[in-house]
Amino acid sequence: xxxxxxxxxxxxxxxxxxxxxxxxxxxxxxxxxxxxxxxxxxxxxxxxxxxxxxxxxxxxxxxxxxxxxxxxxxxxxxxxxxxxxxxxxxxxxxxxxxxxxxxxxxxxxxxx
Amino acid sequence: xxxxxxxxxxxxxxxxxxxxxxxxxxxxxxxxxxxxxxxxxxxxxxxxxxxxxxxxxxxxxxxxxxxxxxxxxxxxxxxxxxxxxxxxxxxxxxxxxxxxxxxxxxxxxxxx
Lengths: 112, 112
What we know:
The complex is a heterodimer of chains A (112) and B (112).
Chain A: E1 4-7, E2 10-13, E3 19-25, E4 31-37, E5 43-51, E6 54-57, E7 64-66, E8 76-78, E9 87-94, E10 102-103, E11 107-111
Parallel strand pairs in A: 2-11
Antiparallel strand pairs in A: 1-3, 3-8, 4-5, 4-9, 5-6, 7-8, 9-10, 9-11
Chain B: E1 3-5, E2 10-14, E3 19-21, E4 24-26, E5 32-38, E6 44-50, E7 56-58, E8 64-68, E9 73-78, E10 87-94, E11 100-102, E12 106-111
Parallel strand pairs in B: 2-12
Antiparallel strand pairs in B: 1-4, 3-9, 5-6, 5-10, 7-8, 8-9, 10-11, 10-12
């Protein structure tokens, strides 16, 4: 069954802690994306990757980091430098840039 | 810069009534256009897309959208809404810089 998986569904972060959100796809898509969603603000692009071992900053990359060591995987780390990390995080993939993006179910990050 | 505007933050319609959700974009050439739907706490699901050709596009769940170049619009329509259509709807534009820009969303409420 092809698709995009994100884990965990809920994640709790303590002050000063880095946390990593997982995103895996088995659609054989080249491009992958991370978005942050806050109420009333739509989706804001954090990072995106067009191919393995390459990625670009989006509109709100500060306080976040990513890696793309495998085509299937695009983990997002929320670092302690991100002062307001509470949000819903969505991962997406597409065959190429500007093509249809397919979304995972999301991870809700909460700060303790 | 490219932009997407969804003028209505909330829309309420009665079950069985017709629906139109507005989307306007800013871009010099013909963009790629998308409509997505999101149920609470879930990822986004593609409803329909326009890349080229016929300007009236049919999607899933009985939705359609019409691309009007003269008005820079891509409004989403459904002739008769069902209670299960209550969700948040996002218009998105792919406009030539390797990214897709999402609108801030319109939340649809259905009255029984």
